[in-house]
Amino acid sequence: MIEGILIGLTTALTLQNILMVMVGCFFGTIIGMLPGLGPMTAIALMIPITYGFDPATGLILMAGVYYGAVFGGSTSSILLNAPGVPGTVATSFDGYPMAQQGKAGKALAIAAWSSFAGGTLSAIYLLFMAPSLSKVSLSFRSPDYFALMILGLTAIAAFSSKGQFLKAMMMVVLGLMLASVGQDSLSDITRFTFNNMNLTDGISFVLVVMATFAMSEALTIILKRNDPTSAAKQVSLTELGSIKINKEERTKMYKTIPRSSIIGFLIGVLPGAGATIASFLAYGMERNVVNDEEKEKFGKGSINGLSAPETANNAACSGSFVPMLTLGIPGSGTTAVMLGALLGFGVQPGPRLYMTNPEIFWSIIMSMYIGMVILLILNLPLIPYIARILAVPKNYLIPLILFFSVTGIYVMSFNNFDIYLMIGIAVVATFLRLYDFPMPPLILAFVLGGLMEENLRRSLLLSNGSWEFLWDRALTACILLTTILIVIWHVYKTMFKKTNN
Amino acid sequence: MNINTTKIISLLFFIFSAFYLYTAYQIQVFAFDENAPFNARTFPIYLGYAGLFFSGLKVVLPEPNTIKVDHKNLEYKKTVILIVIAIIYGATILKVGYFLTTSLFLFSSYYFLGERRWVLMFLLSFPFVAAFMYLLHGILDIYLRDPFLQSIGVMG
Fold this sequence. Notes:
The complex is a heterodimer of chains A (501) and B (156).
Chain A: H1 2-12, H2 15-33, H3 39-50, H4 55-80, H5 89-100, H6 104-139, H7 142-159, H8 165-179, E1 182-183, E2 190-191, H9 205-223, H10 228-237, H11 247-269, H12 274-289, H13 292-297, H14 303-319, H15 321-327, H16 333-344, H17 353-356, H18 358-386, H19 394-413, H20 416-434, H21 440-462, H22 469-472, H23 474-500
Antiparallel strand pairs in A: 1-2
Chain B: H1 5-26, H2 42-60, H3 76-96, H4 98-112, H5 118-123, H6 126-139, H7 147-151
């Protein structure tokens, strides 16, 4: 392994590769900040450029873009409540309220430090645990994945719904229903398309996230313009606030970061789980472990609530490279794009990658840490400038949010049907948000819908249609038991609270 | 008005789930797949029932914390105008092209939101879109069809 690390360091620390990480991080941050243009778009745009380099350099550049875009996505989550990627949705739960309270600078600084710490810790985990972690990934089977997804969806419904569990579950089901539109992945049979060709490939993730977050946020701001409570929030939005983190806040982060980085990394390692589940689970877990006083602050600008998902999503980014590099199974949509690029280079990912191409395997791992350092150096000094987005008057900001959302969709599909669909979903989402129907569960369900069906299909086919697969394996049963405990605990808490009231 | 809107939304979701479930049962599967443990309609059917279950519970169970929205304070007019502008944008973008429609979309949105600083409005629409279009089309090589710019000879 030492030899591998040295090979990785030698490759990653060449002038060209350091430059690639810097360019990637900077480009990724800018792209990730724009609602609608997430890491997937950024990496996809990079693929033709990377073919001009050797595979290690190409992948280092893409890894830099990935990290930059995830951080950029957090920025738009905090400042605009418009996450460009699902992995940063949980960041907006507490990041956006902090920005509304005039602490945008502090929220961005906490996000930057948490991302750095999460990324750094996970790079260390990856360095020492990559070989054995591939074995853990291999032990997961379809029933376990299915159970894990149920756990993720239940957790988000329980923890993000502010006591409105049923509303959140309705949103989960709606997200899964939206994901079921289009061709069935195995049989190619079209479902819920109503003979409309534009729906054959399903509804794009970017479309749904832009409609339910960016566009619906813009419409909500206009709708509530004269609302005295939201008007007060908007005035405070113009205040940037200090980027300094005081001792008390640092103490909170010291506790949150290690546990969230472990959750993030472990979830990231599981193929298909990725940064989204990691950030939601870390957020949910953090809310459970803090004291009651701190728990009350969740959703209203909690330091722990912001630090946990930020640490976890960056840790998961590193973790998601493990199944991609060692198994050839992408851990997220973004690593799926990178896998395509890897195959384009003629490199076959799999358990033998770090024996046949050690310079690729280890240089990516080493460049992750270098990327984290560069990201911090780049982003911390830039925070005051990045946060100036807040100073843009609403009369300009709202049309610009709409512009980036619509353009993001248009450049992906070049048809106007997607624009109409996006407007339709945004109008419904705006109405639902008025009545406190949470959108994050819908997004997570939409992302997981396809994978969930796929794993349920495999599980049911393997067990000849019997649902016994849910308790046949100890691992599956444990995950499901955790899910049941979350529901029982949530119901108990709600009932206990009502009785007390 | 004493109607609980959350319950109405839940009821609408219940009806939607029933329609979804009906459509799920209508999905045509291959004959050999008809009695398979899992086919293209299995998952949607489960989803339909889940939708009926959760929305049904929401309709039936008592609502302790009713959410009240003060409709008098909501800016429906400007919101609807912006939605209409976005629909018009969608309807014209393919025929007219990206540059002109996007610029007009931005300019009219600023105007209807109450902005009257004409120079700033102009700068943040036409030149802004031109610069963004250059970034996409010229630098990132993303092709943007634009009949308007082609007709005046700016684009090849």
